[in-house]
Amino acid sequence: MKPEAAAEAVEPAEGEPLVSIRDLRTYYSIRGSFADRLVGREGGVVKAVDGVSLDIRRGEVLGLVGESGSGKTTLGRTLLGLVRASGGSVEFEGREISGLPERKFRELRRQMQVVFQDPHASLNPAMTIAQAVGHPLQIHGLERDRNQLRARVSDVLETVGLAPAEAYLDKYPGDLSGGQKQRAVIARALILNPVLLVADEPVSMLDMSVRAKILELMLALKRDFELTYLYITHDLATARFFCDRIAIMYLGRIVETGPADAIYADPKHPYTQALLRAIPEPDPARAVPRDLPRGEVPDAASPPLGCSFHPRCPRAFEPCGWESRDLRDLLETRWARLAGDPRVEEEQEAVGDLDGLDRPSPEVRMSAPRGRQPEEVVALLERIRAEDPQEPFWRGVKRLEASGTHVALDFQLPKDPRLQPVDDVSVACHLYGVPESG
Amino acid sequence: MARAMFWAGVGITVFFIALAVFAPLLSRYNFTQYTSGGHRFPQLGHPSAAHWMGTTVQSSDVMSRVVYGAQTELEVVAIALAMSLTVGVPLGLISGYFGGILDRALVLLMDALFAFPYLLIAIVIAFVLATSSIGGGILTAAIAITAAYVPLYFRVVRNHVISVREEPYVDAARALGAPPRTVIRKYVFFNVVQNVPPIATLNAADAILLLASLGFLGYGIQPSQGAEWGYDVSRAVSDASSGIWWTGLFPGLAIVLLVTGLTLLGEGLNETLNPVLRRRRFGRFEFAEREPREEALLDR
Amino acid sequence: MSGDPVLQARDLRVYYGTPGNPVRAVDGVTLDIGESEVVGLVGESGCGKSTLGRGILGLLPDGARADGEVLYGGRNLVTLSSRELRRLRGPDLGLVFQEPMTRLNPLLRISDHFRETLEQHDPSLTDAEVKRRSLETLGRMGIPPTRFRQYPHEFSGGMRQRIMIALALVLRPKLLVADEPTTSLDVIVEGQILALLADLKNNFGTALLLITHNLGIVAESCDRMAVMYAGRIAEEGPVREVFADPAHPYTRELLRSTISLDTTELHSIPGAPPNLIDPPPGCRFHPRCPDAMQVCNQLEPIEQRLADGRRVLCWLHGPSERIPPGAGAPLEREAIGVADEA
C-alpha cells in the first residue's frame, strides 16, 4: 500500500540506470594466525560481496535489506569508493568507476553522497555545524568567499529543517540532539547537490518518535531535489514505507529483488518470508513463537555450500548444498534440545569427536571412536532419522552406510542458486527451478 | 587532589623557568667565574655570605652554577622536545593513517629504537656528535635526547590515529571527497593532539634526568659551554668523602625538584584532560519531602 | 494475576547528582511484578527506564541515590546494604544487559563462567551437578553441550546473549530484569530470543521485566506493560487493553509513530523529552501533548485507576473535582519548532 507522499514521486525515467552494478565482488582477506603464516597457509577470505548485480534507476528509492553479515554496508561502501572492489563492475551514469584511482574518484564524490547510521559519530566533534556542513564546498573548491559559503550553509540548514539557521551555525555537535545531528549530516550531504544519496541505516539509532520526522524529510528532499536513494537497512518496516524496489541480501548475495509491493505481498524466498515473519508487530493478537528459522547468520569467512541459507531453511531439499557441517548442526541441535537426558551422553560417546566435520564437504567419512563399530553410528543416525523424517537434512542424504572402519555419508551434489525471474521478482532459490550446472 | 598536584607542579616549574630566564639577574656570578674584583674565590669554600651555596674545587660559585644550570637544562630539554615532536608526531600521523609498508617499516624501526635503553642511545649519539663538527654543546645534547624520545611520540600518536581513523566522522570526511591531507589535518590531528601535552610534560621530566645522566657520565654538555647539574654532581662525588656536601647537594636537589615539578604538572594535566581518569564531581542532594499523594490504591 | 507479586516498587525515586541540581531520572514510580509475569517497560531514550531497571536491583552508578521502597521477600531493597544486595543478586534477582559481552570474561571458558556462578552461590554443589545444571540451562537456550568448553569469542552475538541469559537463569532467580536484551541483534535472532524469554514462566517460573524502546516486542511477548515518560509511569496495564485503547496521550502518540509493516502514514511527536533536572511544571508531557488542558501545566496529575485495572497519570481521566474551574479548557501554546525537537 503506497502512502500519499510517495504517490506524487516522479516516475523513474526510462533508459539508462543511474548506477549499474554487475557481478560485483568485494573480498577481505583475514590474516591467518601466526602459525598458519609460518607454514605458508593463507588466512581465510571473507566474501563480503560475492557476485552482486543490480541497477539503481534515476529517481527511485532502492532498498538494500539484510541482516548483519549480509554485505549490504560493504556494497554501499564499495559503490562509494570507500572500499576497493575485488572484481566486477560498477557504472555510474554510464561510466566505469570501480577501478578508479582515489584522485579521480574524489570528483565523483560531488555526485554521490552518504548518510551514515550513527548521527553522534558522523560529525567531527571539533568542528562547528557551519564548518562541518560547509566543508564539502571547501574541499571541492566550490566556494571561496566566506560570506557566500555561510549563506549557502544557512540555506541548506533551513532546507533540512534546522531553522532559523543562525541558531545552529556556531553550535558544536555535542549541543545538538540525535535528530538534529542527523539533519545536519543530511545537510552536509546535500550541499553539493548530489544525484545519488546512499543512506546507511539513517534512522535506526533514533527514537521512534523522531524516525518519522527524518524519513519525512528524506522523502521531501527526494521530491524537491530529484534525488535517487540507495536505502540500506535491516528494518523491513521502514523499507516498505520508503522504497520503490527492494533487494534482499544474505551473506554477500542477493536472494530476492523486485518491486516493493510485489515483495511484501508475496515474498518468494524462504529467507524473505522469515524476515517478514520476524518483524515485531505492535499487535498483541500476534504471539511470539513465529515459526522462525533456527540458527543464525553463519560465519562469512566460510559460508555453507550451495545455498547459504540452507542450514536454516524450513523448505530446503536435495540440491540446496548439504555438507558435513550440517551433520554436526543436526547432532548439536538435537543434544541441546535433549539437554538433561542421559541419551545425550551416550550418543556423544557413540559418535565421538565431531571436529572432523568442520571442513565443508558433501562427502563425510567419519571413523568410529575407539572400541566402537561404525555400524553403531549408522544405527544411531537411522534412529534419529526415524524420529523426525521430515527434517530437511535427510532429503539431502544420498547414502548412509558403514564402510570398513568408517561411516560413509554422502550428500546430494550442492548447487549454487542463481537469480531467476519468477512473476514480478527475481529469486535465487532452487524451489523455483534448479540451474542445470552446479 | 589532582588540582593540588597540578598547581604544585605549575609552581615549581614556573620557579625554575624564572630561574632560567632571569639567570643573569638572579645569579651573582657567571658559572665559570672564579674571581671577582681581583679576589680569587675560595676553593671548596663553605656556604657563606659571599657564596650562599659554597664553591667548587675549581672555585666556581655553586649557586651560580645551579641557577645557570636551570637555563641549560630547560634550554636543552625544550629544544629536544620541540625536535622530537616535530619528527615524531608527523611520522606517527602518516604512519597511522596510511598504514601499509611504510607503516610496518617505521614501526619496526621505532620499536627497535624503543627497545634500547634511552641512556645508551643518547650516549652513543652524544659521543658521535661530540667528535664531529657540532661539538659538545647544547645542540648535541638535544639531538641525543631527541633520538631517544622520537619513538615514544611516534608510537603514542600512531596508536591514537589508528583508533580515530575508524571513527565514522573520519569515514564521512573521506566520503565527502576530502583528500588525505585534509582528513589528517582537520579530522584526525585535532583529536589526536590532545593527548600530547601530558605526555610531553612527563617526557620533559624524564629528559631532565636523561640529560643529567649524560652529564654525570661525562657525555653531556662540555663545562665550557654551560653549567649542568649532572656534571656538577659527578664532580662532587669525590668531594663527598672529604665531608664536602654542598657541591653535590644543591645541584642534586635542583634535579630532584625540577623533575618532581614537571611530573606533578604532567600527572595533573593528565588527570584533568583525560576523560577516563577524570572523576566527575557529583553534587550532594536531598530527596524532597513527599507530599501526601493520593495514589490509586494498590492493595495486595 | 495470581498470588503475591514478586516485587513491588513503591514511589521509587532515583536521582543522579550533578554539580547543580540532581537529575530526577526516576521520579516516583510505583510498579508491581507478579510471579511468572512478563512485564514490559517501554519508553524512549532518556525516560529513565534503564535507571529504573537498575534501581530495582540496586545497581546504581556513582553519584546516584535511591529513595522509596522496593519490596522483595518482605524486605525493602533500597535500604539494604550492598553486601546483602549482592547476596540477592544472582539466585533471586538476575540481570541481562544489552551488550552480551559485558558479563562474559573473554579469558574464561563458558564452563568456567557457569562453575564460578554456581559455586559462588551454592558451594555445596558437586562438579557433576554443576555441569549437569549448566548443560541443561544452556540446552534450553539452544547451546549444544559440545560447545561447553569454548571461549566467548567463538560464539556469535546472538549465542552470547543466550549464554548470558542462561548464566542468569541457571540460578533460578525469581525475577529477571532484561535491559534492551535484543537491541543489538538481528531481527530473526531477536525473535528467537524473545521466544525464549517469553517462555521463562513455563520453563523456569521466573518473572521477567523486559525493558525496551520497541513497542512491537512488548505487544508480542508481554502480559502487562508500563509506559514511561520523563521519569514517571504514564500508563500501566494489560498489554491488550493498552494497545487497543491507549488511555494516555503519550501512549497514543507513541503507538501512532511506530513504523510497522502496516504503516501508511508517518507520524511523529513534536518537541523533545524534557530536561530531567528541571522538568516542566504540572504534567511533564504537557508541552508536547495535543490534548493538553490548562490544568496540565499548573498541577501534577493524580494517578487514576480505570475500569479494566489500568493505571494512568493524566488529567483527561480526572478526577474532575480536582480540576480548578475553567482549567479544563485547552492550553494555548506556541508552535514547537525544530529547535526544540529531538
Q: What is the C-alpha radius of gyration of chain A, as a whole number of Å?
A: 26 Å
Low-confidence stretches of chain A: 1-13
- Kindly name the structural category of chain A: alpha/beta
H/E element sequence of chain C? EEEHEEHEHHHEHHEHEEHHEE
Strand order of the largest sheet of chain A: 6-7-8-3-9-10-15-14
Helix content of chain A: 25-40%
Structural class of chain C: alpha/beta
Helix share bin of chain C: 25-40%
Please give the number of β-strands of chain C. 12
Give the name of the CATH architecture of the largest domain in chain A: 3-Layer(aba) Sandwich
CATH topology of the largest domain in chain A: Rossmann fold
Question: Within the largest sheet of chain C, what's the order of strands?
Answer: 6-7-8-3-9-10-12-11
The fourth-level CATH homologous superfamily of the largest domain in chain A is P-loop containing nucleotide triphosphate hydrolases
Oligomer: heterotrimer
Radius of gyration of chain C: 21 Å
Got a strand count of chain A?
Answer: 15
In short:
The complex is a heterotrimer of chains A (438), B (300) and C (342). By secondary structure, chain A is an alpha/beta fold.
